[in-house]
Request: fold
Amino acid sequence: IGLFFPPTGAGALWLFVFYALVTWGWTALSLPYWAWGAELSEDYAERQRITSLREGGTILGILISALAPVLLGITSHVGQAHLLALLTIGLAGPAVALALIAVPDPKPARGAAPPAGLGDALRLIGGNAPFRRLILAWAVNGLANGLPAALILIVFDKVLHAPDASGPILLVYFAAGVASVPLWLALSVRAGKHRAWTIAMAVSGLAFAFVPSILRTAHPLIWFGVISLFTGAGLGADFTIPPAIQADVVDVDELASGERRAGLYFAAATMAQKAGNALAPGIAFSLLGLVGFSTHGRNGAMQITLLLLLYCGVPSALKIAAAAIMRRFPIDRAAQEDLRAAIAARA
Reply:
């Protein structure tokens, strides 16, 4: 309320304080929420179903927030901000209450050891080889996602010369993300989570590689929409599969330590993911500034080439690199079942 309904005369300090509170509050809510989901089930496939429903809802929420102002005919930025705040408050309250009432608490860890200190916990995390591989892929993929997210509006303005087309294309992108969730769920259960995510990142990387080619076609916006179907589907995998893999990685730590430290693992993974997303705009705009790119004036071939390289070339390479990192991930269904059996036998 304080962020979206500021009083008359509120300035930069008001914005900073309430934006910081929203960001801090969301982080404080998200970490136990994600860890809670990881602890609801010990089953390999059921964990994927849980994260698919949860993160699919997240993408659907993004899509609704974009569609609602259009459907209601709200065009002003202030009106759209007010609508977003009301939707968030109206949906979050009942949803949180329902979760607290209806969702069971996780089972207590069997044979838990005394809580480890921060140093011991970090050493255990560092010694968890599957986690190191997952967090590296998560960070690389986060950087790959952050670059086009930071630059897409500029690409539509300076390359496609159709700034008004960005809205419909983004709707296609997020709609594809929502629609792809059942596909990735089925593939994750059938072929394995890390294989499904590897396929998704590879497909997204290849799709980004085709962007320069479509700019030379007669109807680049149509082809851009087609590419957005594939990259949007990749977004569905990026949201839903890594948290389910993370739940399996926590089993490795539980076997080694006797404790379930899902919250600690999700905090570390979230930092890696957000670091990639946060670094992307800084890297992109710093490099564009070095070559004299202008968001308001005209740009030469060198500036446009660098823009496209950062928008699609680098993300394509990063996606392929992240897919390569996850290709031989050691925890599949059989390995996870062996982990759970060993944990049960030791209890």
Summary: Residues 251 and 340 are 7 Å apart (CA to CA).
